[in-house]
Amino acid sequence: MSVSPGVAVMSEKDFIAERRNAAVSEAVAEIRGIEEHRGVSRESLTSIKEVLLELAAKRDLFSEKDFPSATGEPLLYLLSEENSHRFALYLSTGLPGRSSPPHNHTTWAVIAGIDGEEENRVYERLDDGSVPGKAYIKVSEKFVVKAGTGICFMADDIHSIHVVSDVPTRNFHMYGRSVEHLPERIKFDLDQGTYEVYPPSPGIRK
Ligand SMILES: [Fe+2]
Q1: Which of 42, 51, 145, 206 has the largest CB neighbor count within 10 A?
Q2: Which positions ≥6 away from 59 have C-beta within 8 Å?
Q3: 142 Cα–ligand 1 center, Å
Q4: Do 153 and 101 contact (CB within 8 A), yes or no?
């Protein structure tokens, strides 16, 4: 096939990037609309989860080639974020055996599976929050996120994640606000009955 002089030929990588940008923009716009029209509730977050699962099904746009799985510390590839830091979408990847401490988000959060198995432990808080720095929590539910499944959290919900597959996880993590702009997010020490501020992950890639 001959190519006319001056006509740029798009590489496969650029073609995929263009399709990915369009798919991500469309999904985020839909999610913004759900929040705008229905507010933040477990029901509206379930609809947001459905949008993310549809995006996750477009697997060729989020390949290992374009987003290499973690080989050490967990990674968060930033796919989209508004100038206001709202509606932050990440592709999160973690190695088998990795886990996070129990934490809240101080904004809504939705996870949708692409690859691997990420066990989410959900916790119930047992104390009344009246003693600063102290918190007693216990596991109330476990749910494994994998391809085709997801889980939603309200701002005060507490969870921890545990990579239980023998391959790295590759999942969407979407937050009402960027994890770099959640100064009051806290992590819990289950055994000590304490909590402290949970700083943003050092593994964010933009
Ligand atoms: Fe989380």
Answers
A1: 145
A2: 114
A3: 14
A4: no
Structure tokens at 82: 């508004």
Query: Ligand 1: distance of its center to the CA of 159 in Å?
Result: 6
Ligand 1 center from residue 160 Cα (angstroms): 6
Angle 42-56/12-38 helices, nearest 10 degrees? 170
Does the pTM exceed 0.90?
yes
Here the tokens at position 53 are 């699962």
Using the mean position of ligand 1's atoms as its centre, give its distance from the Cα of residue 6 in Å: 48
For ligand 1, the distance from its centroid to the CA atom of residue 161, given in whole angstroms, is 7
Q: What tokens appear for 51 in the block?
A: 């949008």
Q: How many CB atoms lie within 10 A of CB 130?
A: 6
> For residue 27, what is the DSSP state?
H
- The answer to whether the beta carbons of residues 130 and 56 sit under 8 Å apart is no
Tokens describing residue 149:
């499944």
Residue 75 near residue 92, CB atoms below 8 Å: yes
- How much distance in Å is there from the Cα of 83 to the middle of ligand 1? 22
Quick: pLDDT tens for 124-135. Answer: 999 999 999 999
Model pLDDT, residue 134:
98
